[in-house]
Amino acid sequence: MTFPRCASTFLALWLAAGVLPHSAGLQHRDLSRHEASRISMACEYAIEAYGRDAEALPRIVDEAFDEVDRIDRLMSHYNANSPLSRVNREAAQHPVAVEPELFDFIADAMRYHRDSGGAFDITVGPLMKAWGFFRGEGRVPSDDELAAARHHVGGAHVMLNPVSKTIGFDESGVELDLGGIAKGYAVDRVVGLLRRRQIAAALVSAGGSTIYGLGAPPGADGWEVKLQDPIDPQIIAFTIKLKDRALSVAGSSEKAFEAGGVRYSHIMDPRTGSPVQGMLSVAVLASSGTAGDALDNAFFVLGPERSRAYVHRLRDTEAIFFRPDASRGWTVVREHAE
User: Most buried residue, 24, 52, 76, 208, by most Cβ within 10 Å?
Assistant: First the structure.
């Protein structure tokens, strides 16, 4: 099956995924198949699952979608009533106590911030707004606007207390946006639920931005995922098999604009305050959707050369970098953990 692109403001996707051609109609005697989708977190989440209990399978898939909806209610910065929105409103005035799941997730996101040298940053929201990517089509901010936005960006503004599970900001104007990692986390939560319900195999997609292959479909040794050309989406650049592994993609085209002869993508370098230049897309293979979702953004910002040492420190991780090339359209650089 083919998954649509995610409607997220912060992710552009070059992904189409599908099982092996013969598997869609194939069922082992003890396996049934169910496929469904639901809009959540501004994306179409899609699940194709194989299980032994034909009657229970649709109910289990609905339960998985309910879990995605729960994560959205917890972590949405668009929903004024979400716990994350409360943090953004109040954390500059006083430390805000949050439930352990949200605290631990934000602490994990801050770890990716530190490990990437600031390339991945959940405080990047003010820059996204300054460049017009939050709800608009993009614009070049004035120097004063950019300086004001940069003043509120950076992990140093966020204070986490692991004992009290509280989050504080050191000044007003700071905010957290988990859009660059929450979809991958929701995929992981779904996979965990499917494992507990003894689902034999499943392909879980968060709008194509992060896909996890649980086990393998009948008659195959993995889920076949087709990675589209970063310039011409009608062309397949690579075919990748997933088995108990995630694939996440960050790209520069879907949310972009041109001004003064310069093309600006929505993927921001938090350290410079400007959109990243010189990169088309990055695909990351990782052991979890959370890791892939964070790392594809970090590697996109860092580029292949500055990502190399970071990739090599990570287990079971591979990064595929698509860079523009004047003669061939694009070139590929691949890095993986040793």
Answer: 208
For residue 158, give the amino acid letter: V
* Per-residue model confidence as pLDDT tens digits over 114-166: 999 999 999 999 999 999 987 767 899 999 999 999 999 999 999 999 999 99
- Residues with Cβ within 8 Å of 283's Cβ and at least 6 positions away in sequence, in order, are 14, 227, 238, 240, 247, 248, 249, 296, 319, 320, 322
Rounded to an integer, what distance in angstroms lies between the CA atom of residue 274 and that of residue 280? 16
The C-alpha atoms of residue 138 and residue 329 are separated, in whole angstroms, by: 25
How big is the CA angle at 209 (ends 207 and 214), to the nearest 5 degrees?
85
Strand partners, 161: 166
In this prediction, residue 202 has a pLDDT band, given cuts at 50, 70 and 90, of very high
Total-model pTM: 0.90
Q: 210 pairs with which residues across the strands?
A: 206, 248
For 51-75, letters b (16+ CB in 10 Å) and e give: beeeebbeebbeebbebbeebbebb
| Helical residues (DSSP H) of the chain, grouped into ranges | 57-75, 83-90, 100-115, 125-130, 143-151, 182-196, 289-312
Percent of the chain past pLDDT 90, that is, above it, reads 77
